[in-house]
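Protein modeling request. Please complete all fields; requests missing the sequence field cannot be processed.
Requester role: graduate student
Desired output: 3D structure, token encoding
Chains: 1
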Amino acid sequence: MKKILLMICFAAAATHCLAQYQTSRERSRYSRTTTERYYGLRLGLNISTVNSDVVDTDLDSRTGLTVGGVYGIQLANSYPIWLELGLLYSEKGGKRYHQGAEITTRLTYLQLPVVIKYSFDVLDDLYIQPFLGGYLAYGVGGKTKNYGSVINNIERESHSSFNDFRRFDGGLRVGCGAEYKMLYAEIGFDFGLANIVKDDFTTARNQNFFMAIGVNF
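Delivered output (217 residues):
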């Protein structure tokens, strides 16, 4: 957790410095003759859970890192409507307690978000951007750890989380961002729709609240 907070503070300081420079991209974003586009970097925090109809698969919240890049393009010259594509490293999962032992599950994904944004010009160089879309994700790593219990004689053990969970995930993505010059910040929620557990008689889905900061070029 300390490493995540340190990285977020570092990124905030770096983006503040970058914002002092003028970009070559003029902010006449919505001219009728020019289609605008941008590239962005994102760093943030996930607070995720796994919601299931079975107690042993239902996981309480845990925090994780999200980092990656995005590409946005204006869909219409006359309107502030944007399509944004991304590639993110995203840590999800959750934790639970069983017979006095803490069990944590980390699910690490490469995630492809695709959202539509509408940009409201609030003040000079300040834009509010609600967005709606979806995401696809593929699991690339993660461990399930049972920390054991001396009282109940449960030994510690760990194994790959994808022994129990499917690697594919997908769902809806909704949120709101704010952009000031090069600086960008957003909050949102991923509603998992795919059943991520391998048991045919169980249903489990990722749910994730996220917040991120970054820069747009």
